[in-house]
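The aim of this short unit is practical: by the end, you should be able to scan a pair of folded records and say something sensible about each. We start with the first protein, listed as its amino acid sequence and then its structure tokens.
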Amino acid sequence: MEKALARLHAETAERRRLEEQLHSVPNQILQAEDAERRRIARELHDGVIQLLGSIKFRLLHLESLVPQQAPTVREAAKVLERAVDEVRRISQNLRPSELDDFGLIAAVEGLIAEFQSRTKVRVDFQRRIARRLPADVELALYRMLQEALANVEKHASASVATVALFADENFATLNVRDDGRGFVESANPHGIGLINMRERARALEGVFSIKSEPGRGTELSVHLKLEK
């Protein structure tokens, strides 16, 4: 009897250990993804952008050496400048420097400004955060907002969106609402973006929810627990 009980306890402990490992896998994947984004963003900024800048400088020097080709050289320089801007935008989306240097609000303002410029969807940004949040919380909120705005752009056909970002001593809250087409909640798509948002929230002892109705837009909310 004692051996059977000991074996049962051992099996139960092993099952719990395996369950904990399985629960940690999605968060480990997200952490690895963030680390790889940071690496690629640094390579783009320190490598590709610097190289393109050097080529542009050489082109402008060539303009003075070959005046008869000046219009062609200037046009090539403009195309190169657009390439630099595009690489810079990609690098910023991968890992915004403002998030590390100036905090969540500055990074979100930059993200919203770029989103509005690209999509022409008006965004009303409301915030009430008096301090820097833990780095993992700031990164999670930024990534979830990034995914939410991408969904608005791809699926909502919205004209206006509202982003609310609040934090007190205990919780940080992100709310994103749009006036787009919406969908039937029972048919809520479970794409990788929504799965990532749920996993980011769960990893920080938070709650993720999404509500929608055809013709009445979509609203998602994230509540993350803050350490004392």
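Turning to the second protein, read its sequence before its tokens, just as you did above.
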Amino acid sequence: MLVEARSKKIAAIVILILIAFVALWLLVPSGIVSDSARFSPDVLAAIPATYRPEKVSFVVRVKGLSIPYRVFGVFVMPGETVSLEAVFDSDGRAARAQVVAGRLEETGEGRWTWTAPRVTGWYPITITDQLTGEIIRLNVFVMEPYDPSSESVGTFHIGRYPARARRNNPVFARPKGFVQVTEYNEDVLVSPHFTLGQFVSKQSAQYPTYLLLQEKLLLKLEAILEKLNERGIHANTLHIMSGYRTPHVDALVGTVETEDSPHFYGAAADVFVDMDEDGYMDDLDGDGEITSADARVLADLVESLREDTLYSTLTGGLGIYGPVPHRGPFIHIDVRGQVVRW
């Protein structure tokens, strides 16, 4: 009898373990990922102290963009399916894709679809060139859905967005969701020289906070930074004075912008070069003073990018701002899709 009772107990334990295993297996595609997989050192690699372009010898196409960088941010909604393609400049090369969560399906040579988990979070995808071993890591952020009737995500007040995009410009479409930023993911790279936290709204110092960030803006910032270094201005990042801003904050302070302000949509950044980290624009023209002329140097460099055909998809606004008592000069850039200057 004792042996029989013990056998039943062991059988019950085995059944419970199997049930737990099956439950875990079902949860993993929905976003339950171990910390060791998500926060490994190579995923959390920091911005290099010395600038390098950080490009690889192939590109990954995702969301209509060609990504040549070793690391890049992508933003999707829960359960959204995106297409991935590894593109090489020569035949005979192949790639493999690896994910930590979600559903990955191979659809052809170097092509996949990935269906995002339904849980908000950060889910890296790696695409590896099997010949060279080079890797492009997509730091994919599954966004928190946004209910426009509440004008908030959690306790973070967003404000009101118009139901229809002005002039049917998709850049200004009402957001479906927002990227959750926490103390654990704020330092995650969204491109080789920029982190998620650099774009956070100054609205709240508490976690979690939320933002919008468009992939095209990251491509534009990297292009500007590369051109700066080619011109001999050595910078490993740009200071983001203002990235995402909520309609709520602009309404509170009484400086309401037009309803299609690109800052509201994660499509704009106010930036300057600040390698000495004193909070002000560096002396870019070498005259020993910090003036509007230094912002003009940066703006002229942005204008020169228009000569590059690859830059045509990153068209947008450019504004020059001179110094005032409480801040130094800076420029505004955006990817609204139309040439606007001020």
